[in-house]
Design goal:
Layout: E1 5-8, H1 24-37, E2 41-45, H2 51-59, E3 69-75, H3 87-94, E4 99-105, H4 108-115, H5 119-135, E5 139-145, H6 147-153, H7 155-168, E6 172-177, H8 184-197, E7 202-206, H9 213-222, E8 227-230, H10 244-254, H11 268-279, E9 296-297, H12 300-308, E10 326-327, H13 335-344, H14 354-368, H15 377-387, E11 396-402, E12 413-422, E13 425-434, H16 436-448, E14 459-467, E15 478-485, E16 490-497, H17 500-518
Parallel strand pairs: 1-2, 1-8, 2-3, 3-4, 4-5, 5-6, 6-7, 7-8, 9-10
Antiparallel strand pairs: 11-12, 12-13, 14-15, 15-16
Helix pairs in contact: 1-11, 5-7, 6-7, 7-8, 8-9, 9-10, 15-17, 16-17
């Protein structure tokens, strides 16, 4: 398969995802990381729509982008407006990029209902805008918005719109499934027709409303499209855009396409997690290829087979894209899981050893009480250390108290007092926080930082509460997961109790212990 060009639009289409709001600094950081990976095009935003995007194009010139081509995005000229006088076209030129992408309407329904103009005028808008931008010596990618919906309704007009872009000199014409409802066989049928009518290289831009964004993109490449647009982790409006994190390994590792140097794919998981962090979005554990659970195995039968040959339950080697295999520990997995997990922790356990049976018995007991270790591997490692007599006592609790707070007055400020004995000395800390867990976290770390300064580097990044036995009503046990992070690693701990504060305290204590264990 020939070379496939990757065009990332995380900084524009991705930011339309609910819950994502990137600062100028955030956008610059992501662009630099995409450039390091080697993406061919990075769409920076729409300079005609807001001041931040225009500022980005000025800022990115100082960022030392070396591998990628920065692209400014815009639209065709407005109806009955001279292209050289159109304000958003002027903004495109002001962005100062060597490549621009403009979208135009391929669906006659949109032309008459949204643009409120004639079908003939729309064709002129496409041709004149492309031709004008080409006259400025720019590379022009034309996005045929709603192409596939337009093709279903009026194929002749949809193709005519592409022909106008080609006549104007477009370097690439990208076919867009903007509403995300097209099926793979419909993608194929439309592209076959387009290829008979125009000779300009084609691209594909899919949305994921039918959960077919990746499949449709792969189908399009198979039919001859040479440029793929999408976003990291599939971020985007409504159900998102086609996920480049999935498309890339499918094309390069499974279909033999030439996309990036082989070594770069080993950075894919790291890139996926980095962008999620900057966007302040949780990365779903079950995300294909780069999720934490993408190569995680839990069932005893599966793990036994995996020990014989990894191909039994894995479609590829996770190391190819920078991920890794995980064996989950639970009451369902049996002794094999325990043995393999211990090996990951550099502990040797025999399948029939007394220690293995002891650990399995304790896990089954704790999971019956509401614990869950498959999502809290730090707590599992601490448990194994304790049961094998290898744990280390870093501190002893002397006092932990949440001060009285008023309920219902709209204030969430709470004070926590923590007294610990550390290496024979007592340390007392009192800290205010936004709620009891935040206050306890701050006071706990404050009381330790004199002796263990490394705790200053860690922070609580996620906090989840689950009811274990809901039939008990307000007396039910709760399970608390706490995710912590330092400059290099992230880890999760778990605590269970009928009192949510007590459960949180248990998880907080283990988060600190794990940090100190790892140095």
């Amino acid at each position: 398969m020939k070379k496939v060009i990757f065009y990332d639009t995380t900084l524009r289409d991705g930011t339309q995802s609910e819950g994502i709001s990137l600062s100028l600094h955030d956008k610059t950081l992501i662009a630099q990381r995409l450039d390091q990976f080697g993406f061919h095009y990075i769409e920076g935003g729409w300079p005609g729509s807001n001041p931040k995007d225009l500022a980005f194009f000025k800022e990115i010139k100082k960022a030392g982008i070396r591998r990628s081509r920065i692209v400014a995005f815009g639209a065709t000229r407005r109806a009955h407006t001279k292209v050289s006088e159109d304000q958003q076209v002027k903004a495109l030129l002001e962005a100062g990029t060597k490549a621009v992408t403009i979208f135009g309407k391929s669906w006659d329904f949109h032309v008459t209902e949204v643009f409120k103009t004639s079908l003939k005028e729309n064709l002129m808008m496409i041709y004149e805008t492309v031709a004008y931008l080409k006259s400025k010596k720019l590379e022009v990618i034309y996005d045929a918005e709603h192409f596939f919906d337009g093709f279903k309704e009026n194929p002749d007009y949809a193709v005519k719109s592409l022909q106008q872009a080609a006549r104007g000199g477009a370097d690439n014409i990208t076919l867009c499934d903007t509403n995300g409802g097209t099926l793979p066989h419909e993608i194929r049928r439309a592209i076959l027709r387009v290829k008979r009518s125009i000779k300009v290289p084609l691209g594909i831009h899919c949305h994921n409303d039918g959960e077919l964004g990746v499949a449709n993109s792969i189908q399009a490449v198979g039919e001859g499209c040479v440029l793929v647009q999408g976003t990291i982790n599939g971020y985007g409006e409504r159900c998102g855009n086609a996920n480049l994190v999935s498309i890339l390994p499918i094309l390069q590792l499974k279909m033999g396409a030439k996309c990036f140097p082989a070594g770069k794919l080993k950075e894919l998981t790291q890139l996926s997690h980095y962008v999620a962090e900057i966007c302040n979005m949780p990365l779903f554990n079950n995300q294909a290829f780069t999720g934490r659970s993408a190569f995680a195995h839990k069932g005893g039968v599966h793990i036994n087979a995996m020990m014989k040959n990894s191909k039994t339950y894995e479609h590829m080697d996770p190391r190819q894209i920078g991920n890794h295999r995980r064996f989950l520990v639970s009451e369902l997995g049996g002794k094999t899981n325990i043995m393999l997990k211990a090996k990951e922790l550099q502990m040797e356990l025999g399948k029939e050893s007394p220690e293995t049976r002891k650990i399995l018995s304790e896990i089954q007991k704790l999971e019956n009480e509401g614990y869950q270790f498959e999502a809290a591997e730090a707590s599992f490692e601490l448990l194994v250390q304790r049961l094998m007599g290898k744990s280390k006592k870093f501190f002893t609790r002397k006092l932990a108290r949440i001060n009285q707070e008023d309920i219902g007055d709209g204030s969430s400020r709470v004070t926590a007092t923590v007294k610990l004995e550390v290496k024979g000395e007592e340390y007392l800390a009192e800290e205010d926080g936004d709620g009891p867990v935040n206050a306890l976290d701050k006071a706990l770390r404050k009381s330790l930082e004199t002796v263990y300064p490394s705790v200053k580097d860690m922070r609580l990044t996620d906090y989840k509460v689950r009811v274990v036995n809901s039939s008990e009503g307000t007396a039910a046990k709760v399970r608390v997961f706490i995710e912590s992070q330092d400059k290099e690693n992230a880890w999760t701990t778990v605590g269970v109790d009928k009192n949510v504060i007590e459960a949180s305290w248990k998880a907080l204590i283990e988060a600190i212990e794990y940090k100190l264990l790892k140095g």
